[in-house]
Amino acid sequence: MSAVLWANCLVGGEVCSDQEDRAALYRHAKKLDAISKSLRLPSFMAACDETDMRYNLQDLELPAGMTSTNEVMAADGAWLARADALAMLEGLHAHIRETRPRFGLLSDQHATVVDELAGVIAFVRSQPDAERFNFAVVM
User: Fold this and answer.
1) Contact 85/124 with Cβ under 8 angstroms?
2) Which of 18, 25, 65, 69 is in the most buried spot, having the most CB atoms within 10 Å?
3) DSSP state string for 105-135
């Protein structure tokens, strides 16, 4: 079982997820973070929330009154403001398309990273009422 990223928006205090597996973004998160920092954009890693993975791997009990890890993440997760997230995602997307860095040792996943970023951008743009954004690390 491998980990992937799901794009989430926080709308009215509730998590809205696209539930699309983005394996390349997870696999190359550290490189994406380094690129975002070099461009003076918000940190890619700061948008990655491990609440779901932590609760599932450690078999933790949900807090009283909560029925899902989404509720825990909404209350206590790692989030970026929607505007900051869009700036980071769009900046990464444009830079990676222009400079064409390699993603991967054995095979280049450049095209997959570009496509996955484009999908996340489209999702965030489709949520104009969202206050915040994050990537849930899920298995």
Assistant:
1) yes
2) 25
3) SSS--HHHHHHHHHHHHHHHHT-TT--EEEE
In single-letter form, the type of residue at position 69 comes to T
Can you read off the two tokens belonging to residue 24? 């390349």
1 confidence band (pLDDT: 50, 70, 90): low
What gap in Å lies between CA 22 and CA 2, rounded to an integer? Answer: 11
Cα 15 to Cα 1: distance, rounded to the nearest angstrom: 24
Which amino acid is it at 70?
Answer: N
Please give the average per-residue pLDDT across 95-122, as a whole number: 97
pTM for this prediction: 0.94
User: What is Dmax (Cα atoms) for the chain?
Assistant: 49
